[in-house]
Amino acid sequence: MILTAFYRNNLPKITNFILKNSGNEADAEDVFQDALVLTYQKLRDDDLSLECALATYVFAVSRNLWMNTLRKRRKILLNDEFLGISEDLNESILETIFVKERQFLFQKYFLKLGERCQEVLLHFFSGKSMVEISKLMGYSEGYTRKKKFECKKHLTETIAKDPIFHEL
Questions:
Q1: Among the four residues 3, 4, 44, 69, which has the most C-beta atoms within 10 Å?
Q2: Burial class of 64 by CB neighbour count within 10 A (0 to 12, 13 to 18, 19+)
Q3: pLDDT digits (tens, 9 = 90+) for 108-154
């Protein structure tokens, strides 16, 4: 009920902004839903301190998501309106979006690695020593170091080949 009312009251503002900036109604709905998900995640993680109305915050997130989409399309056509959103809030929102995109890119290519590479890197990223990892994996310490190096190198190379990586 509350979410429906929030949706009904705020989607038109976002739709209007996106329509004025090279988008369509489907884009607006997608962006608005993504903004709601990001806001929910920040609330769930207790990482949200609002210094403005929730509607203003969601609009700012939506605006930044859309601007990021336009940057990706190389079509920055702005028809920006004064919204009373501080520059600090915009920077915070943009940083959150970039962090989420980097995480998505990492996860996308991490999941394409072989099972053993994933396992070695998960142990490494969790802070385990090479000695611990070699015991867990049943490898010699030298082979574990080589395997970690190869897996990490393959992961970074595949991420670097993605065009989105260069935009982040």
A1: 69
A2: buried
A3: 888 888 999 999 998 988 899 999 999 999 999 999 999 999 999 99
